[in-house]
Specification:
Layout lengths: L3 E7 L11 H13 L1 E11 L9 E5 L2 E9 H20 L10 H18 L8 E5 L6 H7 L6 E4 L7 H4 L5 H8 L4 E4 L2 H13 L4 E2 L4 E4 L2 E7 L6 H9 L3 H11 L3 E6 L8 H14 L7 E6 L8 H21 L7 E4 L5 H10 L2 E4 L8 H9 L7 E5 L12 E3 L4 H13 L2 H17 L2 H22 L1
Parallel strand pairs: 1-2, 1-5, 2-4, 5-6, 6-7, 7-10, 11-12, 11-14, 12-13, 14-15, 15-16
Antiparallel strand pairs: 3-4, 8-9, 9-10
Helix pairs in contact: 1-16, 2-3, 3-4, 8-12, 8-13, 9-12, 10-11, 10-14, 12-13
The protein binds adenosine-5'-diphosphate-glucose (ADQ).
């Protein structure tokens, strides 16, 4: 078996402590197992005047980590520009937040070309290349242009939007043509895949076979659904052996009250202000719950150079202030809001300590926190997951209380149901979910994707 070459926008530094973001958690496992290369942006930025950006490489546990810096212009146009002010909001159905400039599109393509140029000399004939996420849609096409014939797969971690939304992008046709350079294109959910295929058929007149093969732009690509997951066994273990100090501090501070917990990157797609408003509505409608629980929101800041991310920080702080100001008392405030990143083992312990897990994104490719919450529970006394219908995870975690994150009253009602749910029902809802996650864990996700990619050439050879 050849090596696995993974490419993603950011990669963790070798041996670095865990950093938030679902992608890095999932990929590290696959690469260490198979051996290979992980290429991405170092996170460092050089002045525009720098003559040449040189990649750096270091090896750690069977993996060569190859990183490259970006120039300030690259960061502005590619990362803070087209990827995160056009693709991210649009793919999360927030067309009102979508901003694009031709200059940013050019920067997006330029950085993809740079990544391809760095990768090309490192590729051996039997390597398999796996490209990740919306930052790198054109990378496959750039690699093909440089003569790379290896199998290349692409996985989209975020949702693929409805065709009407996608076609808002001035370069929509070029982006889907770029995707045809991949041998396998994977989505988190069937609805994302259906949106993509509908666009291919209706807008592009391309042929989609019943066998999941797409004939487009002179190539055949295989299309599939691969819902990402977590390392269930490891997370279950973490939750049983959390770091003692943090747990003791939490327990002391709760003073016998129930804990409701939310953990998200600070992002407008995660529905945090709406969720806080729903806690306010819950306290208004059901005053008997006042002073009986604490809702802890953990949300490390992300993408801070983008204006919309400063706005969301302010919106969350204001929403929490409003609810605390209205319902808090001298010895109790309902919402605790912190921006810290938490070590995985402690996070697992916190999730286990929470009687209610609130995961209510407005739209989310999958949402790994929902899965982590389930894996962290005590089988004999599990908590209740309140989960948005617009998270990919809602397709799998059927035992959750599924809510509409835009419906504040509906969420308030669900919180009441969650707090009052008897043990028997909690167990009945929890069991099928944990069994599902024990079967469909992150290793299975990787092997399913890579297997589908390795089968690709045989099938397409037959089809063509
Ligand atoms: P994200 O949008 O980053 O990922 P998510 O799936 O929730 O979202 O993953 C976040 C990860 O970061 C989780 O493992 C969580 O435990 C961790 N994390 C969050 N806050 C943390 C904190 N304060 N301290 C420590 N860890 C924290 C994108 C897509 C998702 C998709 C993933 C994976 O947006 O929809 O599920 O990729 O494909």
């Amino acid at each position: 078996m050849g090596r696995l070459i993974a490419v993603s926008n950011r990669i963790p530094k070798p041996g670095e402590r865990y950093s938030p973001g679902g992608l890095s958690v999932a990929l590290r496992h696959a690469l260490e197992k198979q051996g290979g290369i992980w290429l991405g942006w170092s996170g460092d930025v050089q002045p525009n005047s720098v003559a040449e950006l040189k990649p750096r490489s270091s090896r750690w546990k069977n993996v060569d980590y190859v990183t490259v810096d970006l120039t300030q212009r690259d960061e502005d146009e590619y990362y803070n520009g087209f990827a995160n002010r056009a693709l991210w909001p649009l793919f999360h159905h927030r067309s009102g937040l979508t901003e694009f400039a031709r200059r940013d599109i050019a920067g997006y393509y330029r950085v993809n070309e740079t990544f391809a140029r760095i990768l090309q000399p490192l590729v051996r004939p039997d390597d398999v290349i796996w490209v990740h996420d919306y930052h790198l849609i054109p990378l496959g096409a750039e690699l093909r242009r440089l003569g790379i014939r290896n199998r290349i797969g692409f996985f989209l971690h975020i949702p693929w939007p409805a065709p009407e939304l996608f076609s808002i992008l001035p370069n929509h046709a070029r982006l889907v043509a770029n995707l045809s350079s991949y041998d396998l294109i994977g989505f988190q959910t069937k609805s994302s895949m259906d949106n993509f295929l509908y666009y291919q058929r209706e807008e592009m007149n391309n042929h989609v076979g019943a066998d999941g093969l797409l004939e487009a732009f002179g190539r055949i690509s295989k299309i599939g659904v691969f819902p990402i997951s977590i390392d269930t066994a490891e997370f279950e273990e973490f939750a049983k052996t959390p770091h003692g100090t943090m747990m003791r501090r939490l327990e002391r501070s709760l003073e016998g009250r129930t804990l409701a917990l939310s953990v998200d990157r600070l992002d407008y797609s995660k529905g945090i202000p709406q969720r806080i408003d729903a806690i306010g509505r819950f306290l208004e409608l059901y005053p008997q719950f006042r002073n009986r629980f604490i809702a802890l929101q953990i949300a490390p800041r992300s993408r801070e150079k983008i204006p919309e991310y400063c706005d969301i920080n302010r919106d969350v702080a204001e929403a929490a202030g409003r609810v605390n100001g209205t319902f808090g008392d001298i010895d109790w405030v309902p919402i605790r809001y912190i921006n810290r990143s938490i070590a995985r083992q402690s996070l697992a312990g916190l999730l286990r300590a929470a009687r209610v897990g609130i995961v209510t994104p407005l739209r989310d490719g999958m949402n790994l926190v929902a899965k982590e919450y389930v894996a962290a529970q005590d089988e004999n006394n599990p908590g209740v997951l309140v989960l948005s219908r617009f998270a990919g995870a809602a397709r799998e975690l059927r035992g959750a209380l599924i809510v509409n994150p835009y419906d504040i009253d509906g969420m308030a009602q669900a919180f009441k149901t969650a707090f009052e749910m008897p043990l028997e029902e909690r167990i009945a809802r929890f069991r099928p979910m944990i069994e599902h996650l024990r079967k469909f864990h992150v290793h299975r996700w990787c092997s399913d994707f890579l297997e589908a990619l390795s089968e690709y050439q045989i099938e397409t050879a037959l089809a063509s």
